[in-house]
């Protein structure tokens, strides 16, 4: 990654360059009523069976605690050291080769400090408490997290904590109406505002001196960030955009998928250049489909993953992550209710699929970390 300076960047100051041969209408994250794909046949998810040793362990969110799946040993182990009292919403966030677990108790009378955050090292089954926080994102070095939490009922602080639970930077005051989006070499991506929906708040970049620079899009539009680039997906009829924060140049990208419901999630390859992006929409009336494409941010060209789109996959039951050696792992649930893991390395002509028998994963996008 390259360290860049952004003191001169102004909100909405990107210069747009269209790709005329691929310019299509990009639609929103929320499926519209008229987003049924064209009449080409959609089939259930297909591929070749997973064979040989995968060396894959999946950390999968579940309530009240996540579990570890060893694909080669066909074993499932619960994570220890986590609270199990009451009804809880649990999510898993990759942090480099490690992960954090956020456990939020569901109650009507709960007050700050809020959800509890735990670190878990690669190949471990025991979690370490890092503290309480309303917002958490991975630090750029992959061995710590940024936590934004309540100091009092009306005052919040931002701090960085290692996955071993040790403070790495002193806490500093920050507005409680702040949403953490990620960390780039140039600083923290955040959003802040006054509306009831934090995803509507405008995104900014805060550099190491605390200077804030508006980026000209709301938090909900951010799909991925890597190096000095951000990938955004806007409202209906607006294209995806890849923007360079240093040069302030933005390229509009064609909508590659036949599914026009919207974008789902994105995952950055370990090389920092390629981004896997999920698309969703109605494959046939009443049946949701899912599609995956790989964007090369250097050439701004799309590559379609094989065996897709599939007509029996719902976005809300799908998550994905890259392994350190460059394989994309997708965990999903088919229309018949079975859990499936798909593994693909760029350049391979087919997906490799395996059926899993798992405890019920938590619904939502923050479900999976890969070891």
* Estimated structural class: mainly beta
The tally of beta strands, per DSSP, is: 30
| Helix coverage percent | under 10%
Distance, first to last CA:
22 Å
What does this structure look like?
The protein is built from no helices and 30 strands. It is mainly β. The strands form seven sheets. It has a five-stranded mixed β-sheet, with no helix packed on it. It has a five-stranded mixed β-sheet with strand order 2-29-28-27-26, with no helix packed on it. It is globular. It starts with 14 loop residues before the first strand and ends with a strand. The N terminus is likely disordered.
Structure, briefly:
The protein has 371 residues and is mainly β. It is built from no helices and 30 strands. The strands form seven sheets. Strands 1-21-20-19-18 form a five-stranded mixed sheet, with no helix packed on it. It has a five-stranded mixed sheet with strand order 2-29-28-27-26, with no helix packed on it.
């Amino acid at each position: 990654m390259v360290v860049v300076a952004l003191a001169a960047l102004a909100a909405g100051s990107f210069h747009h360059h269209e790709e005329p041969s691929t310019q299509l209408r990009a639609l929103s994250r929320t499926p519209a009523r008229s987003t049924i794909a064209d009449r080409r046949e959609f089939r259930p998810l297909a591929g070749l069976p997973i064979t040989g040793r995968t060396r894959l362990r999946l950390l999968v969110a579940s309530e009240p605690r996540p579990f570890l799946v060893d694909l080669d040993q066909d074993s499932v182990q619960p994570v220890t050291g986590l609270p199990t009292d009451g009804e809880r919403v649990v999510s898993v966030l990759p942090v480099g080769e490690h992960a954090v677990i956020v456990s939020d108790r569901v109650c009507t009378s709960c007050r700050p400090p809020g959800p509890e955050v735990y670190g878990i090292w690669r190949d471990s089954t025991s979690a370490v408490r890092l503290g309480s926080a309303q917002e958490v994102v991975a630090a750029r070095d992959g061995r710590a997290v940024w936590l934004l939490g309540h100091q009092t009922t009306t005052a919040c602080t931002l701090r960085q904590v290692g996955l071993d639970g040790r403070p790495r930077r002193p806490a500093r005051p920050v507005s409680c109406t702040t949403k953490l989006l990620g960390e780039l070499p140039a600083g923290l991506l955040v959003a802040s505002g006054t509306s009831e929906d934090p995803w509507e708040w405008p995104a900014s970049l805060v550099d190491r001196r605390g200077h804030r620079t508006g980026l000209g899009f709301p938090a909900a539009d951010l799909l991925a960030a890597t190096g000095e680039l951000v990938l955004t997906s806007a409202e209906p009829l607006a294209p995806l955009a890849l923007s360079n924060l240093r040069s302030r140049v933005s390229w509009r990208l064609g909508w590659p998928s036949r599914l026009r419901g919207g974008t789902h999630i994105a995952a950055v390859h370990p090389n920092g250049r390629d981004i896997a992006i999920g698309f969703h929409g109605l494959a046939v009336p009443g049946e949701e489909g899912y599609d995956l494409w790989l964007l090369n941010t250097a050439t701004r060209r799309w590559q379609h993953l094989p065996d897709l789109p599939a007509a029996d996959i719902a976005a809300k039951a799908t998550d994905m992550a890259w392994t350190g050696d460059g394989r994309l792992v997708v965990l999903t649930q088919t229309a018949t209710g079975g859990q499936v893991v798909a593994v693909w390395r760029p350049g391979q002509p087919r997906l490799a699929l395996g059926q899993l028998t798992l405890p019920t994963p938590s619904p939502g996008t923050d479900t999976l970390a890969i070891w």
